[in-house]
């Protein structure tokens, strides 16, 4: 017999249900009682808003009302009436309340008071039940859906690139090994090396750092594709910006050059942010207030000039600033920050990699808007980026966002076989192992481009959460693989 | 300067472009030439259909026409005119052809002839350029998008559950180890064991076999959630039905019982299949013909009674047959197959696990439609399934599809703490390590349910591909991790 005969609170709030008999199920957020009446605010996860249940102690037993404490799960049958109080236009007068599951106030960790984000990270299995994390994960969902909708509507095809891979030629970072060998007693070859022929895949394998190379293969058949999957870095980075496991979106497009790539990335970012603004109003209003409260505790010079919602609208509505690395170096060299030696890393000559402080200066102080930096020195970029005619730079782009820094990295890819092979040799990347990648340049090559977006960085930007561990349900970082 | 000033072939075919000057880019599929004219069929991946380019040797140089061989990539500028021939209503008269990338006929492996699927698997980086695999991956994309759209429209939230996990308590299968330890010389503890405290996560970790348990945590806050991510099995199964790395969809819903779960799964499957029928007409027409040709080579008793499209329509339009395991055992025991000992595993008594041959008998011979089998013996199902009042069975469901067998497995979850803990102890599952999972039963528990769908099995069913390695771009199986 079907149990799920309920109306979601989101639906209750969207339309007029006055006078209707309904069943609502959800978890108690707060309860206020006096001897005449109990007001129970319940939440079912469909929206950040609670719905108020009014319980008359003559109708609902004392035992039930006692058990309806914070965190308990209730099934409430009753009638929707106009609300007496302020804040909400209607409320539910309970005819019957069933306790689906109790939450002992002495042991339930999420009592109605302010908890630190650090504490909530330790109970990540329960933090999803709070206002903040409910909002974050609903926004995360909306952004993920917007990603799929954007690309689907444009005729891109979603490709699932491999997670386990034998290709580590990219040099994008330290990798996790994947094996079924007995670690205590691995089989060895005659010369004492690990015998990977005996491993599951009969070779050394690791977790992918990027789906780009496989994405390129697919784009050479399907035209325009994107990936959206987990990627991994085994770097011992204990920062608020790094995860060992995170989700990446990587579109790859045949027939795109560097400018087409920039146009796509800008349009895409504006689309997904606008989508969140349109579809997550209640959650973003809450997160906007939350961010404003957080600001107060920051040193004055680190505060955002704009509030969260204003930042999102600003990005959605304004053109990104496009300039070359070479132009950016000139701006940085001549900046007061540099002249007064306020940068930790002074910008002295063309060719240096930009630090986070430089990126933030360009975005937050100089241009005061998102920046697309292009045409970096080839020495500081990956082998597959297309070489420009100057012989010094490649057709790379990084997109820099306020507060986040680099949110997108991409490039036109080097489609010319000879130039690509030469660059790989210069960078000591084994061309034999990459025969399949080079085949895309041997057969039916075409100008093509793509970029990668770290999904958690995007969720951070849109939700205003300061620590990347607070925008993924169960974060993986050095020493942490709980839940 | 933006390069991507082209019109996609899909768009060219959808509307009337007669008389327009356009640029088309794509790869040559076939070329027919005589001394007066060349007909070049090009494909850009946007659709399975090629577009015919007509090239006059007085206009296009001999060298260019020679290089426009199968697999070469072209940029063609010209005018759309009414087609002289049959098959297509319009064609492109070339004013200019640029060879973006050649494909030497002596070395390009994909010449226009029939290639075996086995051969194409060895060149998986190129097979995406064939009609069959183009169709498969476009349908795969459409199905993935339909999954997201279905759940989004119903108010479910997409959760990214962890890929790397320390929890292996589920017993769903053999796992891959994930480590950064030096395999040749791993650190050891005083008693000679591997010192996992020195590993990246300071504990033993592996690749997830399912996101279900974490999905349940999220459902207890957000109400209705789903996962769609990679899962892994380190089983040495070299069959046409098994992958070491595959994608799973796992919805988990608070306030759902077993029947709600069945209703959702049936509605969901019908939705995504209908979506493919509506949105992938050309690709499915092609795959339908392809499947019909394959049928001819099968032994008569293994042939499908219905063609691919008819199977899809049948599933989308008919109610699934629901029955209990106990009822199924009676049917199987009394079947002619069983009496005549034609089953490899004879069905003799209640309690045995069903084999693939039994599932297929029920679906393909007895009911001739998808079957939802429910209420299995608890001994053959996982610890988290809700125990029925008979003390013998659990509120499990498996959905069986023709040709595929089990496509969905799910259950109402055991929400009663004491019963769950007892079952875990009976099955030797460590309850201490699972404190976080048990917390969902300690605090605000509610009836809830969920299921898992192997995405590749769904893609197989919809595309009619016989081998699961042919519905994922770069399959991972024992001994295989290429590309």
UniProtKB/TrEMBL annotation, chains A, B:
<feature type="domain" description="Aminoacyl-transfer RNA synthetases class-II family profile">
    <location>
        <begin position="137"/>
        <end position="475"/>
    </location>
</feature>
<keyword id="KW-0547">Nucleotide-binding</keyword>
<keyword id="KW-0030">Aminoacyl-tRNA synthetase</keyword>
<dbReference type="InterPro" id="IPR004365">
    <property type="entry name" value="NA-bd_OB_tRNA"/>
</dbReference>
<dbReference type="InterPro" id="IPR006195">
    <property type="entry name" value="aa-tRNA-synth_II"/>
</dbReference>
<dbReference type="GO" id="GO:0005524">
    <property type="term" value="F:ATP binding"/>
</dbReference>
<keyword id="KW-0963">Cytoplasm</keyword>
<dbReference type="InterPro" id="IPR045864">
    <property type="entry name" value="aa-tRNA-synth_II/BPL/LPL"/>
</dbReference>
<keyword id="KW-0436">Ligase</keyword>
<dbReference type="InterPro" id="IPR004522">
    <property type="entry name" value="Asn-tRNA-ligase"/>
</dbReference>
<comment type="similarity">
    <text>Belongs to the class-II aminoacyl-tRNA synthetase family.</text>
</comment>
<dbReference type="Pfam" id="PF00152">
    <property type="entry name" value="tRNA-synt_2"/>
</dbReference>
<dbReference type="InterPro" id="IPR012340">
    <property type="entry name" value="NA-bd_OB-fold"/>
</dbReference>
<dbReference type="Pfam" id="PF01336">
    <property type="entry name" value="tRNA_anti-codon"/>
</dbReference>
<dbReference type="GO" id="GO:0004816">
    <property type="term" value="F:asparagine-tRNA ligase activity"/>
</dbReference>
<keyword id="KW-0067">ATP-binding</keyword>
<dbReference type="GO" id="GO:0006421">
    <property type="term" value="P:asparaginyl-tRNA aminoacylation"/>
</dbReference>
<keyword id="KW-0648">Protein biosynthesis</keyword>
<dbReference type="GO" id="GO:0005737">
    <property type="term" value="C:cytoplasm"/>
</dbReference>
<dbReference type="GO" id="GO:0003676">
    <property type="term" value="F:nucleic acid binding"/>
</dbReference>
<dbReference type="InterPro" id="IPR004364">
    <property type="entry name" value="Aa-tRNA-synt_II"/>
</dbReference>
<protein>
    <recommendedName>
        <fullName>Asparagine--tRNA ligase</fullName>
        <ecNumber>6.1.1.22</ecNumber>
    </recommendedName>
</protein>
<dbReference type="InterPro" id="IPR002312">
    <property type="entry name" value="Asp/Asn-tRNA-synth_IIb"/>
</dbReference>
<comment type="subunit">
    <text>Homodimer.</text>
</comment>
């Amino acid at each position: 017999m079907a149990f799920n005969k309920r109306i979601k609170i989101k639906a209750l709030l969207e339309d007029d249900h006055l006078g209707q008999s309904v069943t609502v199920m959800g978890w108690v957020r707060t309860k206020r009682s006096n001897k005449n009446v109990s007001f129970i605010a319940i939440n079912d996860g469909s929206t950040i808003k609670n719905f108020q249940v009014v319980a008359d102690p003559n109708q609902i037993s004392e035992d039930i009302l006692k058990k309806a404490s914070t965190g308990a799960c209730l099934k409430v049958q009753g009638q929707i009436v106009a609300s007496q109080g302020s804040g909400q236009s209607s409320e539910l007068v309970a005819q019957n309340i069933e306790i689906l599951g109790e939450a002992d106030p002495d042991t339930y960790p999420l009592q109605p008071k302010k908890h630190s984000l650090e504490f909530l990270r330790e109970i990540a299995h329960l933090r999803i039940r709070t206002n903040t994390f409910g909002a974050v994960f609903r926004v995360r969902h909306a952004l993920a859906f917007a990603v799929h909708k954007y690309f689907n509507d444009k005729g891109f095809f979603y490709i699932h690139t491999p997670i386990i891979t034998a290709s580590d030629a990219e040099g994008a970072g330290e990798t996790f090994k994947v094996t079924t060998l007995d670690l205590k007693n691995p089989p060895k070859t005659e010369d004492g090396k690990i015998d990977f022929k005996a491993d599951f895949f009969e070779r050394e394998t690791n977790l992918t750092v990027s789906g780009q190379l496989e994405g390129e293969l697919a784009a050479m058949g399907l035209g325009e594709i994107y990936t959206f999957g987990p990627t991994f870095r085994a770097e011992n980075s204990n920062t608020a910006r790094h995860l060992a496991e995170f989700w990446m979106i990587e579109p790859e497009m045949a027939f795109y050059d560097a400018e087409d790539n920039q146009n796509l990335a800008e349009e895409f970012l504006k689309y997904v942010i606008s989508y969140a603004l349109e579809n997550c109003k209640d959650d973003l209003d809450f997160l906007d207030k939350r961010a404003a409260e957080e600001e107060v505790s920051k040193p004055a010079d680190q505060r955002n000039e704009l509030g969260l919602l204003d930042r999102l609208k600003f990005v959605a509505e304004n053109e990104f600033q496009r300039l070359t690395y070479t132009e950016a170096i000139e701006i940085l060299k001549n900046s007061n920050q540099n002249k007064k030696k306020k940068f930790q890393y002074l910008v002295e000559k063309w060719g240096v990699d930009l630090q986070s402080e430089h990126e933030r200066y360009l975005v937050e102080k100089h241009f005061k808007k998102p920046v697309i930096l292009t045409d970096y020195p080839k020495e500081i970029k990956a082998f597959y980026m297309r070489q420009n005619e100057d012989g010094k730079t490649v057709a790379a782009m990084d997109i820099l966002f306020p507060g986040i820094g680099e949110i997108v990295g991409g490039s036109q890819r080097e489609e010319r076989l000879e130039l690509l092979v030469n660059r790989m040799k210069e960078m000591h990347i084994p061309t034999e192992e990459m025969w399949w990648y080079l085949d895309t340049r041997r057969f039916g090559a075409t100008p093509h481009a793509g970029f990668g977006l770290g999904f958690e960085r995007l969720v951070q930007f849109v939700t205003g959460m300061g620590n990347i561990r607070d925008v993924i349900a169960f974060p993986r970082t050095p020493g942490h693989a709980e839940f």
